[in-house]
Amino acid sequence: MAASVGARAMAAAIHPSVALGSCRDRPRPQRAAAGAGAAACMTVTHSRKSSSLLEKGAGDGRDEWRAVPDLWRSCSERYGKRVALVDPRRDPPIRMTYLQVEEAILNFAEAMRSLGVSPDEHVALFADNSCRWLIADQGIMAMGAANAVRGSRSSDEELVYILKHSDSVALVIDTPELLKRLEARFNDSLSLKFVVLLWGQKPESFAFPVFTYEECISLGQKSREKPGTTSALPIQPQDVATIVYTSGTTGNPKGVMLTHANIIHQMKYLDQCIQPVPGDRFLSLLPPWHMYERVAEYFTFTRGIEQVYTSVKFLKDDLQAYPTQYFVSVPLVYDTLYSGVQKQLSKASGLRRALVMGFMAISSFFKDLKRISEGRSLTRAREHPNRLECFLAGVMAMILSPLHFLGDKIVFSKIRAAIGIRKAGISGGGSLPKHVDKFFEVVGITLLNGYGLTESSPVVSTRAFSDNVLGTVGMPLRETEVKIVDPESRKTLANGNKGIVTVRGPQVMKGYYKNPDATQKAIDGDGWLDTGDLGWVAPVWKTGAARKCGGMLVLEGRAKETIVLSTGENVEPTEIEEAALQSSLIDQIMVVGQDQRRLGALIVASKDTAATSANDLKSLVREELQRCTSSCSFQIGPFVIVNEPFTMENGLLTPTMKLRRDAILTRYRNQIDYLFNKTL
């Protein structure tokens, strides 16, 4: 049902905005003259393609969704006056209800149509996390186009590559500063119908027509008020909704084509992980173009949550100012929260520190025993069940429980209050270090780890409140199949055996844009996606310490990251790197050693060590490496401390904070060669 005139007028007074229609225009209109403003837009008569649910308001159930923006019709009907978005760092701060968000999306969609974007065309969206990113994202989809997305921290070369490779006909961009960065790299081969600035003022002159966000919203609103809208065909679930360029640790990024059906699968079934209720608050920190953050947002909006935008700079303050029921982030952020607690603890008096560490040790042992007695001990998953062990673990856990609950009352409750996560943290987008996983368990904050990749929209599996087995990434989502195959023979392996993780289900991508060869390599003739990850599925036991682990997926690194020593031994570097990062002296580390007799490492030391002499620092780091990695299968031999951190800006980290191993190896080739040659 379309929003009433009164509701529209009220919404427009706060944030001009159209009743949501996922519409697509067929004929392509003439391009506006360079430098034209909003008033110079052409009025074009053409057919439309739309989301029948959003446009006509027919029903509001998730089973009726055909296009991603359909969710806003459901949300506006159910949660209309509830606050959907809070962007507190804007001037002035922005608050928008579900009705206002729906109106803004519809107005943006109509503006895209009026400016000449046709169905199935592509619009580049280069911006960071904000309420306007969401409106632009959904507005582009709602009129039947697909967006090609990326953030401002990517290199200029990468952004221009995506703009051209995606065949985008228009560009929606974050700020004038980012536009100026890219302008120098534009050339005659680039043809854009227009540019939209989400924030800031447009330049006085530019090679293409430039519109501000406010002009787009106003244009869309005026266009929607005109009579004579033509009939529309529905967007199809198999239509491409977005092209997401993979972070990629080597070469140019590949454009992953995700359909509306791919994403709707996630919107329907992420309740396997969490069940938010209307009014629950989420803090949004991650890049919104990353599919992990993106589908988490889409899903939680369907439950009527309030989303608050934050940033790394303000995260600590915002966790206190806006206590959140759920927090979606990557392992690095949870590791940072863990390190913050450790740092505060190191400043405490000797007695206080000893008290906290004592309770931590007791509660860690208590939790280990609870896992065994309750059948959630992954370490026993490959062993024959032992009922007596479970019984004895239960008895010992009962004995220790008073001390654990005392520690919870006087220590862990204060840590929970300081971190500010009320119900659960959700981790994805990378490997969750074991020590971080255990820390959150001990202090009583539920941490739900999941697994996926861009090519699977992204979630493949996730832990749940009822089945939160540490060390796993949980059970596959509904309608999702997971199969472990031998890397060489490609034969299916039995549960408990490590191999390549392959996935099949409704969330698997349509393919790589303009790259059929890569698509064919990634997805076989039966629809199985080769993830390139190594893992195994926990065997099913009816009794014993691992009786509730059966069927859960366990990851053990990337096939391409495996280091093969000259001895023929295979080493998964991530296990060692995660262990080493427990040290407060080590900020970043990359294990090296391909074709060598032993492992080495490149290490970025903590900023807190700046005043330490080089020789002393090396001795301290050596001691920390030995302490932290003593339980690993392989130890680090020689290492070098590098002065420059691995960052996105210098090309050594992906946008999701993963190491670009090939780039790091190339940059530090001489140091690595010297490292091993001097130890011969």
Overview of the molecule:
This protein is an alpha/beta fold and 680 residues long. The protein folds into three domains: 5-73 and 90-222, Rossmann fold (3-Layer(aba) Sandwich), CATH 3.40.50.980; 329-489 and 535-559, no CATH class; 563-677, 2-Layer Sandwich (GMP Synthetase, Chain A, domain 3). The strands form six sheets. Strands 3-2-13-12-14-15-16-17-18 form a nine-stranded mixed beta sheet, with helices on both faces. It has an eight-stranded mixed beta sheet with strand order 8-7-6-4-5-10-11-21, sandwiched between helices. Helix 1 packs across helix 4 (98-114), helix 9 packs across helix 10 and helix 13 crosses helix 15. The longest helix is centred in the middle third of the chain and has 33 residues, at 387-419. The relative contact order is 0.08. The model is unreliable at 1-21 and 23-46 (pLDDT under 50).
**The CATH top-level class label of the largest domain:** Alpha Beta
Mean pLDDT: 88
Cα separation of the termini: 76 Å
Q: Nearest-angstrom radius of gyration? A: 26 Å
Q: Any chance you could write out the topology, listing elements then pairs?
A:
Layout: H1 5-14, E1 48-50, H2 52-56, H3 70-79, E2 83-87, E3 94-97, H4 98-114, E4 122-126, H5 131-142, E5 146-150, H6 156-165, E6 168-173, H7 176-183, E7 194-197, E8 210-212, H8 213-225, E9 232-234, E10 240-245, E11 255-259, H9 260-269, E12 281-284, H10 291-301, E13 306-309, H11 315-321, E14 324-329, H12 331-346, H13 350-374, H14 387-419, E15 421-427, H15 434-443, E16 446-452, E17 459-462, E18 475-476, E19 481-485, E20 499-504, E21 511-512, H16 516-522, E22 529-537, E23 553-558, E24 563-564, E25 570-571, H17 573-580, E26 586-592, E27 599-605, H18 614-628, E28 636-642, H19 661-667, H20 669-677
Parallel strand pairs: 1-9, 2-13, 4-5, 4-6, 5-10, 6-7, 7-8, 12-13, 12-14, 14-15, 15-16, 27-28
Antiparallel strand pairs: 2-3, 10-11, 11-21, 16-17, 17-18, 19-20, 20-22, 22-23, 24-25, 26-27
Helix pairs in contact: 1-4, 3-4, 4-5, 4-8, 9-10, 13-14, 13-15
